Amino acid sequence: MTRAAVLTAVGAPLRVAEIDLPDPGPGQVRVRVAAAGVCHSDLSLANGTLRQPVPAVLGHEGSGTVTAVGEGVTHVAPGDHVVLNWAPACGGCHYCGLDEPWLCASGLAVPASPYATLGTDGTPLHPGLGTAVFAEETVVRAAAVLPLPPGVPLAEAALLGCAVLTGYGAVHHSARVRPGESVVVVGIGGVGLATVRSACVAGAERVIAVDVSPEKEELARACGATDFVPAGDDTVRRVRELTGGHGADVAVECAGRAEAIRTAWSATRRGGRTTVVGVGGKEQLVTFSALELFHSGRTLAGCVYGNTDPARDLPVVAGHVREGRFDLSALVTRRIGLDDIPDAFAAMLAGRGGRSLVVF
Ligand code: CXF
Ligand code: ZN
Fold this sequence. Notes:
Layout: E1 2-7, E2 15-20, E3 28-38, H1 40-47, E4 56-57, E5 61-69, E6 81-84, H2 94-97, E7 116-118, E8 124-127, E9 137-141, E10 145-147, H3 163-174, E11 182-186, H4 190-201, E12 206-211, H5 216-222, E13 227-230, H6 235-242, E14 248-253, H7 258-266, E15 268-276, H8 290-296, E16 299-302, H9 310-322, E17 332-336, H10 341-349, E18 355-359
Helix pairs in contact: 3-4, 3-9
This protein binds cyclohexylformamide (CXF) and zinc ion.
């Protein structure tokens, strides 16, 4: 039996229960979870903003140790340390052929079939985003486990699987930040903090963090932000002041909210680049006039999973961690148990702290 935090119905609080996990089948891997980060997308799946079949075990930002592999799995073996990938690419679709695996047609497809059962009555359970790391152990597709390069602490390595790859990729692949540029990051949660740090690693001279919660200033500065501006009516003016009156070269939006996207875009200079990383709802509508789009010469880009190929980029990011340029622990504000995930959701809603990390 395995302890897991189960979402029984959309909108219900997660309930810790014993589940029955099968042995890994062909092409599957069983992982003893070391740690799982609580991401805003887990909250969105739990409250119905994003869809997921229920009952389910959520959690898609995880690390752990392989305990068993199914037939045909050769890239990992029992005992290996791994990071979970919530969007494994198929390698054969149109987007994989274009070398854009983050857009893979099957990557985000929610596995239709259950992967485990509730211990009490045998109710079938779905694996949230195919990974289900809010549990002591999980069974996943082989492509969803990436070998963890050496020199990265196993628990903190969980963050690499969502927040860090996303923030790193937004900076390096989408916005293509160059040394000396100014970067404004709007929304300072786990992804925002990873984006701040990644901008510093890329050599940005000025990294301006923006959030509605003043308590995020200290967290952002600990990750290398040079400035903090409260989100509000005055944000764009203050960012301009900090950037010679022009606006920032780059903005990265990490909140998934219309006003944050509009603020990020308006805070860039003429010709500036805005990347939207936040996962917002359909009701979040942003308006731009045709004249300002033309005259500002700015760009606005969406970005999925940091536009990363996780298998290629994980070793690069791990290198930054190993060599001391990227301190994963600076993103973590609480280490919690499985029972505390509802509290972590509440903290996120209240704008408190960075990542909560469930440590097993
Ligand atoms: C999300 C993106 C939207 C679908 C669920 C997962 N990514 C990470 O948090
Ligand atoms: Zn996530």
